[in-house]
Amino acid sequence: MATKENFVICRGIANDHAFGIFYGQNPLKYSFPLLLLELSSIIIISHVVRFLLKPLRQPKVVSEIIGGIILGPSVLSRNKKFHSYMFPDNADYVIKNLGLNYRSYGEEIFGQGTGESFFNLGVTSSLAITAFPVLYSIVKELNLVSSEIGRMALSSAVIGDVIGITGVIIFEATKQGEHRPIAALFYLISLAVFMASIMGGVRQAMLWIVRTTPEGKPVDQIYVIAILLSVMVSGFFADMFGLAIANGPLWLGLVVPDGPPLGAILVEKSETIAMVFLMPFSYMYVGMITDLYSLIDDWKPLFYMVLAGYTIKMAATLIVARFLDLTIRDSLTLSLIMSLRGEVELLLFLHWMDFQMIRQEHFTILVLLTAAVTALFTPLISILYDPTRPYMVNRRRNIQHTPPNTELHIVACIHEEENLYGLMKLLELSNPTVDSPFSVYTLHLIELVGRSNPVFIDHEIEEKKDNQSHISSIHNALKIFQETRGEFIKIHPFTAMTIRRSMYQNICELALCKHACLIIVPFHKKMTDNHARTRRIKQVFQSVSSNVLAHAPCTVGILVDRSPYPNIVNGVLRSSMYHLVVLFLGGADAREALCYADRMAGSPAISLTVIRFLPNRDDDDTEMEKKLDDGLLTWFWVKNEGNTRVVYREVVVKNGEETIAAIQAINGDCCDLWIMGRKQGINPVLLQGLSNRSEKSELGVIGDYVASMDFGSRGSILVVQQQILRGQGPASAFSWCKKWQ
């Protein structure tokens, strides 16, 4: 039996800070400058590696593992002089305590060797389970959080973590009782008492903090500080009871109420320091133990065991996914995602090193396999699975090709209460009738803060379950609006809590499932009361609307609402006439905008002016678009020839400057709503000479100008983009007109 050697190192007491090199002092002999150098080195090296690997679509965890290995004895610390300066004899203690608050001290049995059965059980169990924190970070980088495969993988990981935690408890109890069976009983009793204190005491205190915090207000800083300090307290008690120091903060984190106000502010206060300053020390410590030169023939059995484990897990996941009717491509993607590895596995390997379950060469091969598998599988996932692929439909879902006497399905996005009035006003202006009612699927978009797993809520199902926990003032306002217009408009409320980059996936998926022909997305407007909040909301709006425009399975309307926000009770339309202006510059988007305006013109409370802009010279490249425009406009004029509330005019211009001047001249008339196409099919002559900066704007060149402060209009703006079919060209306007004859 191997004996454990003990060493005693005597060090002189030195100051933490040097006076400086100008006093002839070496700053590397002082603890704090050395700590800063170590932190700077791992961050710089990891970022350089990440930059170099970016074309290969590598996740962040791979570059951080490689950065730690580069600093370790495999590369730079191979030089003894570098190692002695950079990592003195107490570096192991400092780095490990900064980055890895999980190690158990105390009971003597933790230092004893562990049998082969524990080793095999530990390795096979770790391969069977996919840790949620690892999976979430990589899935988030791939922007798959709200995708079907992403949600399935995250849900499976949560179940796996529950099983894994249970397995760890059983393993720890078995290990405790290996030499003294009574120790296992004491372990379980300590565990029960500790968890009861966390669940019963700490959880209830946090819920009390949430209840006493006024809505919309931040949590008092004293509570935030107390909770952050309780992380160290929980680690202390967990270590004192022999539960492993990491279990205390882990269980404490599980009982924190997710989302705002408490969960969100805890993430805001702690995420940067934990992820940017403390986590690098973890990878540095992993790199210090990883030694490529320690690999000898003894590592091969472990390598084959791990390789077989990965293969069996991938095959099992693939078979189960196929049994659940997933395609082969999606099944393979899911099996690759469930095989990803990261920081949780590294902590587990370090824990095995503490238990002497593995030696340095075993640890090295496990770290290398972790990095290799994640590095290989991540780009394969991004190649195999496109989250926008399900939205690519070849069937027309737009207003132009929807018969007038059928139900119109609309998805309406809401970011905050200020969007409500503009949305309700637009719905009423859209002229729902008994013959052509609206089914409106409102989607309240909430940026995911303070929790990891995305949430999608169908409030109609929640109401049937008598669950009122997610009811907000927005849904109450929508309910009142439906009661006043229930005969013509049916509201179906939904809520999506997800990260900003994935919001468009929820929108497009809802539109696809509900067979919507129109998605209404609010556009950011200036709010002067809170500039920081304005910038954040603007970024969210721009990100969401741009992605929806690029991937929507139907027509998209971007609404710039400039109306005041009154108290909504009995309808939103005033008794006087509403004046709508359509700026028709040609193309598919303009035709879609005209068809939408034609529906609105059926209301007796609306007057409509259609302005068609024509170039002063013909362009062969746009001849087909012109024919389609002529056919639709002829139909529109014949239909509304006897309607005195509809006016049609044509304006001939020779460049973009004259187009802007003509629009500015129209602005002299009072307009409540400007309607226009975004950009598809516009004759380039009409925009010649205008700035190219607005071409990629969500509103297009003309929409961006009308929405600008220079234009000076108080009317709201609706910019329409017709559904872009995958693999098909525009349909003939003449064939569409036959549906109305």
From TrEMBL:
Keywords assigned by UniProt, alphabetized: Ion transport, Membrane, Potassium, Potassium transport, Transmembrane, Transmembrane helix, Transport
Cellular location(s): Membrane
Main location: membrane
Coiled-coil regions, chain positions: none
Ranges for domain Cation/H+ exchanger transmembrane: 121-380
GO cellular component: endomembrane system; membrane
Keyword Ribosomal protein: no
Transmembrane region(s): 32-53, 118-139, 151-171, 183-202, 222-252, 273-296, 302-324, 365-385
Residues in Cation/H(+) antiporter C-terminal domain copies: 581-723
InterPro entries listed in its UniProt record: Cation/H_exchanger_TM (IPR006153), CHX17_2nd (IPR057291), CHX17_C (IPR057290), CPA2_transporter (IPR050794), Na+/solute_symporter_sf (IPR038770)
GO BP: any one term: proton transmembrane transport
Any one Pfam family match given in the protein's UniProt record, by short name: CHX17_2nd
Membrane-protein topology: Multi-pass membrane protein
Domain Cation/H(+) antiporter central: 440-563
GO MF annotations in UniProt: antiporter activity
Superkingdom as given in the UniProt entry: Eukaryota
Gene3D superfamilies according to UniProt: 1.20.1530.20, 3.40.50.12370
Recorded family membership: Belongs to the monovalent cation:proton antiporter 2 (CPA2) transporter (TC 2.A.37) family. CHX (TC 2.A.37.4) subfamily.
Protein name: Cation/H(+) antiporter 25
